[in-house]
UniProtKB/TrEMBL annotation:
PANTHER family: FAD-DEPENDENT OXIDOREDUCTASE, SULFURTRANSFERASE YTWF-RELATED. CDD domains: RHOD. This is Rhodanese-like domain-containing protein. InterPro entries: GlpE_sulfurtransferase (IPR050229), Rhodanese-like_dom (IPR001763), Rhodanese-like_dom_sf (IPR036873). Residues 15-99 form the Rhodanese domain. It comes from the Bacteria.
Length: 100
């Protein structure tokens, strides 16, 4: 499974790269802020909502500390998706936040 550091992610965001970020945290956690442009699909909903994702795109998955996003990555990878796990999750991310 591919991984990415939060520093790498921030550099890509700063360069205005076209990224596909999926936040797998729970509703109450995303209220604390999300990475700009991320979509929210809680970990427990990944299997039933995987059809909302485009298998031709690469997705960066994020959670609070990196464990739940790793589980989501394993599942989506087994379904043929290209995924990257954000190491350290939101606890390591110190970039811009967006509130929904």
């Amino acid at each position: 499974m591919k991984t990415m550091s939060t520093e790498e992610l921030i550099n890509l965001l700063d360069a205005n790269e076209d990224l596909n970020i999926v936040d797998v945290r729970e509703d109450n956690e995303v209220e604390e802020g999300m990475i700009p442009g991320a979509i929210h699909i809680p970990l427990g909903q990944i299997p039933e909502r995987a059809n909302e994702l485009d298998s031709s795109k690469e997705y960066i998955l994020v959670c609070r500390g990196g464990v739940r996003s790793e589980k989501a990555c394993q599942y989506l990878e087994s379904q043929g998706f290209q995924v990257v796990n954000l190491e350290g999750g939101m606890m390591a991310y110190d970039g811009e936040l967006e509130f929904k």
